[in-house]
Amino acid sequence: MNRDRPIRILLVDDEPAIRRALRTPLQELGFHTEEASRGEDALHLIRVQPFDVVLLDINMPGIGGIRTLERLRAFAPRLPILMLTVRDEEEDKVEALELGADDYITKPFSIREVMARVRSAVRRAQTPERPEDAPIRIGKIEVQPARRSVKKAGHPIRLTPKEYDILYYLMAHAGRAVTYGKLLSSVWGAQYREEVDYLRTFVRQLRKKIEDDPSNPVYLVTDACVGYRFNEEIPRIRRDDPHTGELYLPVT
Amino acid sequence: MLDSHLPDARLPHRQPINLAEAGRLAAFVQAAAQLDLHTKPGPQLASLIHSIFEAEAVAIFDADLNQTYLAGEWFADPEQSVRNICVFETVRDDPETGVIRRVLRVREMPIGALQLRGEITPSTSSTIATLIAITFDRYHSLANEMRMESAKKTEQLRTTVLDSLAHAYKTPLTAIRAASSGLVEMGHLSAAQGELVALIDEQTELLNQLTTRLLRTARVDAQALNMERVAIAPMIDDVVAAARGQLGEVQVKVSVARENLSILCDRSLLQAMLMQFVDNAAKYADVGTTVTITATELSSAVVLSVHNRGPAIPATDHERLFDRYFRSSGAVSRASGTGIGLSVAKQAALAHGGDVWVTSDARRGTTFFASLPAAPPGVQA
Lengths: 252, 381
Fold this sequence. Notes:
The complex is a heterodimer.
Chain A: E1 8-12, H1 16-28, E2 32-36, H2 39-48, E3 53-57, H3 64-75, E4 81-86, H4 90-98, E5 103-107, H5 111-126, E6 136-138, E7 141-144, E8 149-152, E9 155-157, H6 161-172, E10 177-179, H7 180-187, H8 196-210, E11 220-223, E12 227-230
Parallel strand pairs in A: 1-2, 1-3, 3-4, 4-5
Antiparallel strand pairs in A: 6-7, 7-8, 8-9, 10-12, 11-12
Helix pairs in contact in A: 2-3, 6-8
Chain B: H1 19-33, H2 42-52, E1 57-62, E2 67-72, H3 79-88, E3 99-106, E4 109-117, H4 122-186, H5 191-222, E5 227-231, H6 232-242, H7 244-247, E6 251-256, E7 262-266, H8 267-284, E8 290-297, E9 301-308, H9 329-334, H10 341-351, E10 355-361, E11 365-373
Parallel strand pairs in B: 6-8
Antiparallel strand pairs in B: 1-2, 1-4, 3-4, 5-7, 8-9, 9-11, 10-11
Helix pairs in contact in B: 1-2, 1-4, 4-5, 5-10, 6-8, 8-10
């Protein structure tokens, strides 16, 4: 990440109060913000100004958040886009994630949460693509794609081929919510998109092998009604919300 | 054909129906069938009998509505006497005065009475009484149906209002939370300022949780059942994941009868139900204790239970706990809540043909149970 210049955020929300409550602290804390109250305006701004990340309200009058996302994506395929949603808009969240949103932030959010998400999305976007077979290590879990092997705290774990595929996909997309549909179609194929119960059973088995306490997972967490998320940083202290990242500390 | 004009009480079934009376009876059947049952049929029936059978006086008592309908001319007020027929079940015809008495019955149960004065044979009188009883029964079931329909509409309206209100709250809540947390992030707050900002944060979160619960309730009420086979163990995992916010530091232990236990149910409704139990357990669990979620398999049902250690719920509250807006006296001082959640859990279980109950004492803690039939009514497993 380029530390010399502030992160440029495009803030898209039809509610002036929310833009105001975000703009003031974010600017004070060193971010650069521009605002749009409608999707149409956002699409215009993005063409004339460079941005590092977009915060996009899902529920807006006019073309709305989802259509705006689609058009933004077509124009800027790698630009991080974080959706602002309300807790019970699960279907919209799933649609947004499948249309290429990087993540979502649930209202009401804290500024710390917004900053953590923005930084994490920008960092991911600016990290050069990882070679397909480079090992991934998160917390105590390590996968070696070249050998399709998995270790936990240095000890080999035996996974079935499908369990391995699920784990690899989630770890390769660590920190992001992966919808059931996406995971199913990438591991089993597009015709299995709807077989959520099937997937849940596999994830349960997988958790028994990688989690210390499978009932209280810290690595492979469920993003309720949306999908799964492999935590990027593993909390030492259990947190309410896998989104906040507030007290997340890497396991040593 | 000549018939005795006075009914013979001793030979009620021997009496032949004369042709004229048969024609009148046919006319009465037709008229009764065409009655508009959106209004009480009593007055219309009384006047139909009066006109069609040329009865001198008619009195009908509807026990359900506790009303008497009169037609023609009575010498003495028949109000009390027609009621007495129903209460004492006196079917006695009086040849002297030409007064006929009949109890109106639906499925053996007395639902009213008919008292007549006129030249009508006993068997025709009995048929008239039967027709009145059937008409009353049709009217009451239609009225019930309409009441349920209107209750449903009221419920839908309430749900819509709740839903939009709860949504409207989210915007100011978001602005307040972003502003107060922004103040903290920017720093430079004195201890007192920090304390006040923390208070704003805390209360905003409280309001947010209430709003979320309200939204969830509105959703459950509005739903039609969408039955599918749901694997219990992963479903519990989902609920625990969704309840992380409420659980905080409380640990969860899950115990499922067998790994692939599944049940035919409405997934989101069942999740909402379990969510209420877990949410409740999280609220009342003693600090540092574990909440246990158990799924037990019986021959004809699956029982889900959520146990927590914490204060006992008084036995007198066990039933009412599941009523809308009811909050146990202990609960009011201890945790925030709307008093809606557990009623939602009950509705969800009932919708599946199941039930909910609770056991609670200080020593063993509190356990909420929901039983769900393995094969829900009306659904082929």
